Amino acid sequence: MRIATWNVNSIRTRVGRVVDWLVREDIDVLAMQEIKCRPDQFPVEAFEQAGYRLEIHGLNQWNGVAFASRHEMTDVARGFADMPGFGKPITGQEDVQGEGPNGLPLEARALGVTVGDLRLWSLYVPNGRALDDPHYAYKLAWLEALRTDAEQWLAENPELPLALMGDWNIAPLDGDMGDPSFAVGRSTHVSPDERSMFESFSPTVTDVVRPTVPEGYTFWDYKAGRFPKDEGMRIDFIMASEAFADAVTGASIHRQERTGDAPSDHVPVVVDVDPGRLGESYEDEDDLDRPMWF
DNA sequence: ATGTCTATTATTAATAGA
Asked: Where is this region: Disordered (predicted)?
């Protein structure tokens, strides 16, 4: 079972490339971010003809998250319970769809689905823009709410195979930052508060890609030749619970997808999961090759 | 090199966001 996350930077611009990649790489489930469209604008036919179902959460031309899956998706959640909104306070007259616990309009940044035993989230963490920008406080509050809710999901079910996948807009380690326009400790994505916030997700969820792929970026800005100079950033992550992590058999970052005609500025991040290693299969009589610590 | 992409509004040029 191959599960992936990819910030596609407009699905309408990228549909051919994304579907080709899904089929070529034999991907079962893809979490997309920055689809930049509403569901009625999403190019569903190309995915369906390739054998994928879709769940789409898009409110306007900004943000937007979605799943493409070869398998049935259930328990679809648009946003998580404590997710804050952003913008002008809602007075009741605006054309907004949803209001956060802070009374501000919700953005399309989180979509949860269940596939088999797996609980999967496609997440587009707010960028932050600048340390003194209101979007920066929003970023930290959004992440804190996500961590709070994720901790609760796992408190209710410690064996839940949960993955929080997407564009986290944080480069946790110095080696994850190769873009000289970001100063470690003094810019967004690499500030102490953002890195502390990222660290605070552990051990609830941990990075299941880095153990297999210790180095490499997932994003290169379009500007200033960042890709040819390999001045990128590692900001896309698959963060998973212990039950999920125990079933991971491999991982990869598809750097090649930053090349060629009209690439996204992000590349896909992939994990391979062995469903036989998940908790529901422990009782299977033929599952005798499972690790003995189960 | 205020560097490049995207989408929208309004009309082939401007704006805004990342």
From this structure: 252-294
Name the nucleotide nearest A107; use CA and C1'. B17
pTM of the entire predicted model: 0.93
Helix (H, G, I), strand (E, B) or coil at A63: coil
Q: What region does A87 belong to: left with phi over 0, alpha with psi -120 to 50, or beta?
A: left
Phi, psi of A214 (to 5 degrees): -70, -25
**What's the CA A224/C1' B4 distance, rounded, in angstroms?**
8
Q: A266: Cβ under 7 Å from strand B? A: no
What's the rounded Cα separation, in Å, for the pair A8 and A16? 11
Q: Which residues from 34-73 of A have any strand B atom under 7 Å from their CB?
A: 36-37, 41, 61-62
The structure tokens 């979490």 sit at A31
Distance from C-alpha of A71 to C-alpha of A34, rounded to nearest angstrom: 22
HEC letters along A132-193: CCHHHHHHHHHHHHHHHHHHHHHHHCCCCCEEEEEECCCCCCHHHECCCCCCCCCCCCCCHH
% residues pLDDT > 90 (chain A): 88
- What integer pLDDT is reported at residue A200 of this predicted model? 98
Q: Does residue A288 surpass a pLDDT of 90?
A: no
If you write DSSP's letter for every residue of A193-243 in order, what string do you get? HHHHHHHTTTTTSEESSTTT--S--SB--SGGGTTTTT--B--EEEEE-HH
Question: Tell me: the pLDDT tens digits for A254-276?
Answer: 999 999 989 999 999 999 999 99
Q: Which domains does chain A have, with CATH numbers?
A: 2-276 (3.60.10.10)
> What is the pLDDT of chain A when averaged over all its residues?
92
pLDDT in tens, A173-185: 999 999 999 999 8
DSSP A68-136: EESS--EEEEES-TT----SSPP-S-S--S-B-TTSSB--S-EEEEEETTEEEEEEE-----STTSHHH
